[in-house]
Amino acid sequence: MESEELIDCYLELSKDPVRFEAVNQLTNVFFDDSNKDVFAVRSGGVMGVVVKGPSNQHKPLKFRMEDHGPVLSIKFSLDHKILAVQRTNNSVEFMNFNGDSIEAEYSQPSKKSSNILGFVWVNTNEVAYITDHGVELYMVISEKKSLKFLKTTSIAVQWFVWCSLNKIALLASAHGSILQPVVLSGGSISKLPKVETEPGRMALERDVTLATLYGVPAVLILRHQSGPQTAEVHVHTLSGPGQAPVKSHVLKLGLSGRFAINVVDDLILVHHQASRSSKVFDTALSGETDGTVRYHTSIAPAKSFKPATLDIPGLVEPQTHDCELYSPNWVVFQPNVVIDAKLGCLWHIYLCLPEFSRLIPDLSICTQVTLKRTDAKEVLLKILLESIKQEKPDLYKIQEAFNHINSVYRSWADETVLNQMANSPGVPIPSRTTPNTRVLIDQEDIFDGIFVKLDNEDDLGKLEWVLLSYITSLAEYGIAVNHNLNELTVTTLARREKFTALQQFLQYGVVSDSKPLACLLLSLGNMHPAALQMALDMLARIDAKEEIQEVLLSEGQILSALKLAGESANPRKFLSAAESANDNTLFHSVLFHFRNSPQFAATFKKDERLIKFVQHYTTIFQDM
Amino acid sequence: MAERPRILQATTPGTFSRSLLSNITSTPNVSAMSTKNEVELKNFFIFNSSLGPKEGEEIKKIVYYFPPTDSNDQQIKNVGLVEGIIQFTETFKPSSEVSSLHTLKQRQLYYQPEKDFWIVMTLIVPTVKKNKDSTSTIEYLEDDIQDNVYSAVLQQAYLMYRLFWDTFHNAFKKDDINVFKTRLDVFYSAYIKTMKLAHSDILNIFSGIQYLPLDMQSFLKVQTFINELECNYNDIVHSAFLYNDHLIWSGIEPSDMKIAYQYLIGTLLPANMETELQGGSMPRNSGSPFAALHHGRFITGPTNLKTAKTVGKVPKIYLFGGKTPCTYRLAVYRALSASVCLFIKDVELSLGFFKELDEFMSSKITSIVSDIAEYCSKQVLTPSSLPESTPRFIYFNKLNLAYKSTVHLDNKQSGNIVCARDSLKIIADINKKKGIFGHSGEVIVKTMNDYWVVGKTSNSREFYIAINQKNASLIDISDEVKKICDTELKGIFFHPI
Questions:
Q1: Which GO terms describe its cellular component (chain A) (predicted)?
Q2: The complex's ipTM?
């Protein structure tokens, strides 16, 4: 039972976590979530500082600092050239760093000695202090070993949350009942409208998360409920006018207790410590709505992380250590970082899309969710194929899935056309994935990923159903059907000997007209008499007079073909056809048609190859 | 028309006893002073000579005879005469069997659907009674009965029986002869009453299917609905979808569908319409006015699912169009103006199955039907809304049995037509001789009363036009025909293009 559950796990911790010295009496560990650096500071820096980046590819930085007291916070500038260390409540020290040692030290106190709650690197050389009185912005001039004051804004602040990606700080006052987002960029501080919460409703720092969902900054507030009600996450997206926060989503957790939140591939993961499981939410789904707020439940059953292990050097041979999942020592950082400070491990959280998507029970929702994930094309095609291959496929849901796929396909096509109109010709076609289309599944993909794999005798019936569903969906989105799909429709119906159905499909224009398709129909003429009629109709619709002529000739309808050809007729072709028809009257008619026509009469004198027909004529009719 | 002495004249399909032209000119104008008797059925019987080969046992040959009022002697005499004619004509080794016998007052049609079984229908030739100078003369309108039309009627009578009761031979194998006879009696006594002999025409020859013109999107919706249905319920082998009396989709072969279509349009749906009308347009006895509107119900099978204790009558039908003959149960579900015909495997059916089907279909069919209705409402032109003098046409495609007629205002064979009956007869005559066209050809006929009838055939299709235009020249008519072809035969290959 347990192993079965493990197979279904769809969340995993990175296989090679960043290892660092675990917290102990001598060593303090800091994490800078702007650069994703882990600092292991031994004895206030005297015994050395080891900085490890987010991946094990980069060599760790190692240096020593002088001991000026216990470190409260330590962060490199974004280019790792300036190190900022906060040791007191009203001042930050800056040190120029050359790659392996510190070159110069200088410091900057806060204005009016206000209490510094924290500092953040806004830009390569811009740093902001968040104090209990507001925000102070400085430019660091490393050459001069000094800082230049840029701007300040005054607000009462109790705690704050920083989002390095969007350069947004959320300043909390009145015990978190007032949440003020500010944008720090371009050397300025701009206040955004406040996050509107229920009046007086307080929030703790650990319950507030700043994240980016589908490119839009968002404030996620975990709301614990009293009584029997379970906790919720309120998602305020900064999508209103002037980036005003709008409460747009509520995630219903169905649980209460300790939670932590991460965002992976724009999906919100809510980890629940008590049940040691995580739930996944997608704000792009429509959910239930009351007009302004959409209510979401988790899209797949809650599951634990896949078991994670660490290799520990042993006395004889390396040992494997099973990591405790959902440990109380875990601290999560945005978007997808988990740190176990006791263990000295930094992991990234990954979503295993194949396992995850397979667990979404509703195919339509599964398609919607999967279409918005990175590298999901193969996964989605596989899931679709699986559900089609079921004993009784749910065609209705499959149709819905196709509709979601084609909705993306259509908007991509529209964008492409717009881009082509904007660009001069010759400019390469934009890549197949524009920012708005993460997964583009076009007709070729469906053809190769699904239809080709159904193309065997056992699945022909399903192939027919699914082809029709797909064509219906394409039609709904006004997308022209590719030739190979039309061809497959015709051949599938022919193989199933459903010519009656084929006739009706052609009659109602389901299969679009083309010369190759008409030729295919012609080749089916020996299977069903209607195939010839359908082929001729199709040729007539695309005005392929020459092909019709050929067909009529091959059917022995020489006079009809001749009438159709008119002045463009090739006398030799018709005369030899009439000759081989063994019908003297017919031969007479054809010959006299050409001889009496002023256009062709002359050619009879010139073209020697025509003379033999005249001779043939005289041999037939000389006795009469 | 002068009375001519007549001799027995047996015709076979291979030989034409009358020329086309004489048929057209000889049709007399019926004056107001005269009274006309329409064609009538004299008798209708089925026999198999091998069943009573011995003398004195002739009555055993007859498996069905109408009218039942004819005495046994009379029946034996009539059958004996037919047997004689059949044997006599066979001695001349014609290309096919004898198909009709012309006499002054009667027309007899023969049809051998299966070996040794003959179906014979005797018609009384219509007459017109003319009162002139206090003396009345009776004129027999022999040309009013067209052999090809009534042969088709006879064939239809057989095919309809076969749809419900399998071939004569198979029934013979399965059941006792008396059961077989009773079944024939029950079937044909009812069927004969529904034959509309006076209004039989070219449409009987085609016995075609009217398809609904529809946009691709709505058609695909129907198609996906059918696919879902057949995918969910494996016992449903084929389905057909009709809107009013037009076919949108059929999964069975046209040769089977045409009979099923005739049954649906001619018998089942009209009967059902009547019960619907009797109930009033609004449901009066529904539990609550707020209850969700439930639009569909079965019209064969359990017609009222709420009260039904059994699945009711789900007719067994026999189809022969496929590679091997198949037996199905035919359940017809009707919702709004749509009818869904389900050809179900011949297995034990349960009430639960029908309830499930009802739930499945009623939830999906409403939006499909409203789409179709919306599309149809945009197509304002119906045959009856066209002005009287508009040229009328009949179209037929041999390969899918589709027909379209602006001559007939309904498909009830009630004689509700908008061109002269003569023109329809000419069309049937052209059809009879279409063999001379080969792959494609055209015939233009002008009648004495300034009617023009044009018959064209190409690419396995037939197209007939009746134009009522005074003092028109052949060129005028030819232009007119070209115009009609351009609008009506768009999107198909019809020579010349």
A1: late endosome membrane; lysosomal membrane; Mon1-Ccz1 complex
A2: 0.83
